[in-house]
Write the structure tokens for this entry.
Amino acid sequence: MLITNIKGLVGLHPKDKLVLRGGELDHLPVLENAWILIEDGLIKDFGEMKRFPSTIAHLPSYNAEGRYVFPSWCDSHTHIVFAASREEEFSMKIQGKTYEEIAAAGGGILNSANKLQKATEDELFESAAVRLKQMILQGTGAVEIKSGYGLTTESEIKMLRVISRLKAHFPIPIKATFLAAHAFPAEFKNDHQGYINLIIDKMLPRIAEENLADYIDAFCEKGFFSVEETDQILKAGAKYGLKPKIHANQLSVSGAIEVAVKNKAISVDHLEESNPETIETLRNADTIVTLLPSCSFYLSIPFADAKSFIKADLPVALATDYNPGSTPSGNMNFVVSLGCIKMKMFPEQAINAATLNGAAAMELSDNYGSIAVGKKANLFITKPMPSIAYLPYSFGESQVDTVILNGEIYHG
Ligand code: NIG
Ligand code: FE
């Protein structure tokens, strides 16, 4: 496949650039008036139209005049396997109830778990596949998906099997994260250690045996999993080679960052709440800071302090958090807009955070997240746009026109 007359080829980081820290996020390399050649699903070559090689002039080509070509969005934090939406909580939120109050009233994660336990694997697969297809059509070309609405051994495994089926069915890389430590089931309300033992002794060995997960996660938060409980679970996961990606500081500064860094987490996600100590802890770590602005938008909680994290030289990524309770949307274009509008990231920073750093937060940045020779051709061609900044500026719209995965147009 050959694309010619591209207004701008975006995100040309060198192939060996695996993550962007702090000020590196400011720079989004773009080649204007460009062509790109794709062969066997990989980026084979690219250059300027004024040096268009005559040797490829005979190939059929897609004329992208007025349009940009971006590397696909890399959405490193989602919960898209769920049995039912939760609009009843939407109404409670409009009445002024907080996320914690809704959870305490029988809503929240336990509500989703009840419904998921009753759903079949086929039903869960079908509904997740509809969501994933929609996300891909909005430009996402790599994704992480978590369990965590099962909360029993069988249902957590059911969710992870659905994720395995999605991996086999879709032409994008998918990483699976085991999140049994999402909430304490009602029967373990007063026996936290009992549930943690179930995770460690029963769930983890089965998941490892069936090779169902790449990462381990915990919702380390007041009212959910304490720092000590999180530490136990992360250490148990490490025995099976599962690296942590954890829910940290969503509702309060909880000590989650410290326990994550101590356990060599790939990423800490959320950080709507932070303080100078949080930033100091992260400064000397390789852990990626994944921010989820559409969760802040939907829950009306503070937006994460992206500017301070970038100033402190941290590697910031952006992701959706798509789930039925706190972010019923998987639109990365909107996330990039919110990154700019609400977190005051520059378009270049937000786009880098949603592509290369998102890939890094899934350990995929050697093959995804930027346009470089030898990388996978997961890209999108925009509608005609006046500038790159127009993409986040035109919030609520998708400027994605044509999606290319492994060098082929994806029609859904
Ligand atoms: O990332 N914080 C924990 N998990 C999800 C919300 C889950 C839910 O409410 O169903 C989140 O926001
Ligand atoms: Fe989440």
In short: The mean pLDDT is 97.
